[in-house]
């Protein structure tokens, strides 16, 4: 089975997953929406929110064929399966999916990573970013977020993930 990306109406990703889960069993088509857990501040108060990693996309794991493709295309809020101009659909390369699958937990959520900073170097003590320090491009201490670069469908996407900043360990 290979991974594919559905381009859907932004904000309707969960509805597409419900539709796919209703019409297909998990062995035929396994849909996921990778989400990241981050802290947001609204009116002076902090809230924990889940945001889609790729707004407007649902990832599916399936043995894609023309019949399955046509059934998925019948969903009104699914715009397209991502693919090349000459093909109906193209799978996502394993090299692009591996970091995403490593980051998410069983609920398809990227939890907080525990990091500390020493002389502008970021060290990940625990969490999904452990071993992926090279993908971290920026740390925002105030917002408690790390910006990471992921290769997805042929281009780099900058993604914000939640972090917990630890005091430097001596």
Describe the fold and architecture.
By secondary structure, the protein is of the alpha+beta class. The protein has one domain (2-165): NusG, N-terminal domain (Alpha-Beta Plaits). It is built from three helices and twelve strands. The chain has helices spanning 13-23, 66-73, 94-103; strands at 2-8, 29-32, 35-42, 45-52, 57-62, 78-81, 109-110, 113-118, 121-126, 136-140, 145-152, 155-165. The mean pLDDT is 87.
Q: Helices and strands in order, then pairings?
A:
Layout: E1 2-8, H1 13-23, E2 29-32, E3 35-42, E4 45-52, E5 57-62, H2 66-73, E6 78-81, H3 94-103, E7 109-110, E8 113-118, E9 121-126, E10 136-140, E11 145-152, E12 155-165
Parallel strand pairs: 3-7, 8-12
Antiparallel strand pairs: 1-5, 1-6, 2-5, 3-4, 8-9, 10-11, 11-12
What is the compact description of this entry?
The protein contains three helices and twelve strands, in the order E-H-E-E-E-E-H-E-H-E-E-E-E-E-E.
CATH class equals Alpha Beta
The separation of the N and C termini measures 47 Å
Strand content: 35-45%
Instruction: Tell me the CATH architecture.
Output: 2-Layer Sandwich
Helical/strand content category: alpha+beta
Task: Output the keywords.
170 residues, alpha+beta, Alpha-Beta Plaits, five-stranded mixed beta sheet, four-stranded antiparallel beta sheet, 17% helix, 44% strand, elongated
């Amino acid at each position: 089975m290979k991974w594919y990306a559905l381009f859907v109406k932004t904000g309707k990703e969960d509805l597409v997953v419900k539709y796919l889960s209703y019409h297909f069993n998990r062995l035929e088509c396994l849909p996921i929406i990778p989400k990241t857990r981050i802290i947001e501040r609204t009116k002076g108060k902090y809230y924990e929110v889940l945001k889609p990693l790729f707004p407007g996309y649902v990832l599916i794991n399936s043995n894609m064929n023309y019949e399955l493709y046509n059934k998925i295309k019948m969903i009104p809020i699914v715009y397209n399966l991502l693919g090349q101009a000459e093909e109906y659909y193209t799978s996502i390369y394993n090299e692009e999916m591996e970091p995403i699958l490593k980051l998410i937990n069983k609920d398809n959520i990227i939890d907080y990573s525990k990091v500390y900073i020493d002389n502008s170097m970021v060290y990940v003590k625990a969490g999904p970013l452990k071993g992926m320090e090279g993908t971290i491009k920026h740390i925002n201490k105030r917002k408690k977020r790390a910006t990471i670069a992921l290769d997805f469908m042929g281009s780099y996407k900058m993604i914000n993930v939640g972090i917990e900043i630890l005091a430097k360990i001596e």
